[in-house]
Automatic annotation (TrEMBL), chain A:
It comes from Nannocystis pusilla. It holds the Pfam family CheR_N. SMART domains: MeTrc. This is Protein-glutamate O-methyltransferase CheR. InterPro entries: Bact_Chemotaxis_MeTrfase (IPR050903), CheR_C (IPR022642), CheR_MeTrfase (IPR000780), CheR_N (IPR022641), SAM-dependent_MTases_sf (IPR029063).
Length: 271, 161
């Protein structure tokens, strides 16, 4: 069966790219359609063409659409075994470097960047580590920088933290205030949040570890290859790349640039 | 195959199914090509979608009807990708996930089957679908396997269906 992109959808994405310079043209279609469908309902647009006209006419309409197209929700220590493997298998290598740079690509509202910061803090590495956390969505970056989450989520986060091999208590890293949990300043001080697009930007630093989890699943194969190329260019030789639990380099043009170091947790090492 | 499971634990569904079927059974990776004769199980805490290019895609978008994976998400994407060449089967379940998706499959000309609510361990799910969709078959679970095998078998000339 051949892929026949929907012309209305293509026209919307072209318009968004040319007007606002956000490039969703290489996003995987099935999820993209669902997200556009949700935006149509929310913005009360009967058709994709109506949505295109609205977005072109009103920047506010665009920022609402952007929220539907970008917002991911993650958890602290989502997939605990990933963090356990980082701690047990990768941290011993990282210890040998006098200073460390880490890149969380597609950080959304920051949960993954903070999870890594907590692991690094417990392993005594945070003082010599700079974590770049990037995303394309300004609102998400602001939320990530604030580091304030609903307190009710922390019962589950604490379970995951323990399964991830946490050495103390997750409460060592936040202050509860009413219904919110505010993450510690020492974690925030190690993280630099900024705007970066895997679809249109290039590598900006050479780092020891890139963690890019559940971001590539939203891209089609050609855009995945582009993005993985950027990640490859960013990881130093013998450095590490961590993907989401169901993401793989197996179908990528850049598979040869990496070896599978911890296959069950999708942690790769740059050749 | 989608089963509603708690999001925070690894699922053993693949191992369980492997003891009962000779078909290759696995949780697909993102962008994995769809191979005929294979049983694919949605991984916990992801939505499983079908792309038009005959491959799977995954997403961590919000749960739908409190469910991730969501049956509606799978069914709707499969109907978009394969139109009339989809058969959707909805079994026992405790919420209304799947009813809307089964409606999409029917609208695209696909085949719809639900387990009879009278024999379902929890009737909510198939009952919701029956209220919403004029399904092709509502039969006890024990019959669904035979029904699918019959429908999948190549029709011989002269045989009535």
């Amino acid at each position: 069966m051949t892929t026949s992109p929907d012309p209305e959808l293509t026209a919307l994405l072209d318009a968004v790219y040319h007007r606002y310079h956000y490039d969703f043209r290489g996003y995987a279609e099935a999820s993209l359609r669902r997200r556009i469908g949700a935006a149509l309902t929310h913005l009360r647009c009967p058709t994709v063409n109506d949505l295109r006209e609205r977005v072109l006419a009103e920047p506010r309409g665009f920022s609402e659409l952007l929220r539907f197209l970008t917002v991911q929700v993650s958890d602290l220590f989502r997939d605990p075994s990933y963090y356990r493997s980082l701690r047990e298998r990768i941290v011993p290598y990282l210890r040998t470097y006098p200073s460390l740079k880490v890149w969380v690509a597609g950080c959304a509202t920051g949960e993954e960047a903070y999870s890594l910061a907590i692991v690094f803090a417990e392993e005594g590495l945070l003082d010599r580590t700079l974590i770049y956390a990037t995303d394309i969505h300004p609102e998400s970056l602001r939320a990530a920088e604030a580091g304030v989450y609903d307190l009710e989520r922390f019962a589950r986060f604490s379970d995951s933290y323990r399964q991830a091999g946490g050495r103390g208590s997750l409460s060592d890293f936040y202050t509860a205030q009413y219904a919110s949990a505010i993450l510690d300043r020492r974690l925030k001080q190690a993280i630099l949040f900024s705007d970066h697009s895997l679809a249109t930007d290039v590598a900006f630093a050479e780092v020891e570890l890139v963690s890019c989890r559940n971001v590539l699943i939203y891209f089609d194969r050609p855009l995945q290859d582009r993005a993985i190329g950027v990640l490859r260019d960013s990881v130093r030789r013998k450095g590490f790349l961590g993907l989401g639990a169901k993401e793989t380099l197996r179908f990528s043009a850049h598979a040869e640039a990496f070896t599978e170091l911890v296959p069950e947790d999708r942690i790769y090492q740059r050749r | 195959m989608v089963l509603h499971l708690p999001p925070t634990q690894p699922s053993h569904l693949v191992e369980v199914l492997r003891t009962r079927t000779s078909l290759p059974t696995r949780e697909p990776d993102d962008k994995e090509p769809i191979v005929p004769g294979t049983l694919y199980v949605a991984p916990p805490n992801y939505h499983l979608l079908v792309e038009r290019g005959r491959s799977f895609a995954l997403s961590v978008d919000r749960p739908e009807l409190f469910s991730r994976p969501s049956i509606d998400v799978l069914f709707e994407s499969a109907a978009d990708a394969f139109g009339p060449h989809v058969a959707g089967v909805l079994l026992s379940g405790a919420n209304e996930d799947g009813a809307r998706g089964l409606g999409h499959i029917a609208a695209a000309g696909g085949l719809t089957i639900v387990e009879s609510p009278t024999t379902a361990a929890v009737p909510t799910m198939p009952a919701a679908a029956l209220r919403r969709v004029a399904v092709d078959h509502a039969v006890p679970a024990a019959v669904i396997g035979t029904l699918l095998a019959r429908l999948a078998a190549p029709t011989r000339s002269g045989e009535a269906t």
